[in-house]
Amino acid sequence: MTTPPEETQPPRRGRAAPVGSDAGTTAAKTFARMGFTDPALVLHWHEIAGPEVARLCQPLRFSEGPQGGVLTLKALPGAALFLGHETRALTARINRYLGRPAVARLKLIQGSFIPHRPPPALRRPAVGTGCGDPANSWRGPDSLKAALLALARWRESGKN
């Protein structure tokens, strides 16, 4: 069994460290290995491409060459044909987001992936204020009374 060269191994500390302390370095190396010097393209893909296109494909690799950058996208099998017709508009949106003409063409690879789903918004149910709440008997400006009643409803919803 051969050991990898010293430069690829993380430095030994002789102690346990939090898992998150190396997460940024590891993520940066992973993004750089895939050609993304700036991870914003991957992390903000949903906003860049739009929800309809983002659910059909994800950025996989970026490589720069003499004719310009090539962004490789992994697309769902049935969507590759559709995305082939949308490459010019998608390339323009990507370059507009990056602020420079970084992507000259898109390369589509068919395959499956786990679609990104935004986390559901947490909402408290609307609850009326109790009869004995002091916000009900407030005598003052209506805008302040409305704010106090909203605060009282929020406070009551947290007790459930």
What is the CATH topology classification name of the largest domain?
Answer: GMP Synthetase, Chain A, domain 3
Strand line-up in the sheet with most strands: 1-2-3
Integer tally of domains: 2
Order of helices and strands: HHHHEEHHEH
Low-pLDDT sequence parts: none
Shape: extended
CATH class of the largest domain: Alpha Beta
Number of strands: 3
Indicate the structural class: alpha+beta
Nearest-integer average pLDDT: 81
Largest sheet: 3 strands, mixed
What is the architecture of the largest domain at the second tier of CATH? 2-Layer Sandwich
- C-alpha-based Rg, rounded: 25 Å
Terminal CA distance: 60 Å
Number of helices: 7
Question: Can you walk me through this structure?
Answer:
- A 3-stranded mixed sheet has the order 1-2-3.
- The longest helix is centred in the last third of the chain and has 16 residues, at 142-157.
- 36% of the residues lie in helices and 16% in strands.
- The protein has 2 domains: 26-110, GMP Synthetase, Chain A, domain 3; 123-160.
- The mean pLDDT is 81.
- It has helices at 23-33, 40-43, 45-49, 51-54, 80-85, 87-98, 142-157; strands spanning 57-65, 68-75, 103-110.
- The chain contains 7 helices and 3 strands, in the order H-H-H-H-E-E-H-H-E-H.
- Strand 1 (57-65) and strand 2 (68-75) form a beta hairpin.
- It is of the alpha+beta class.
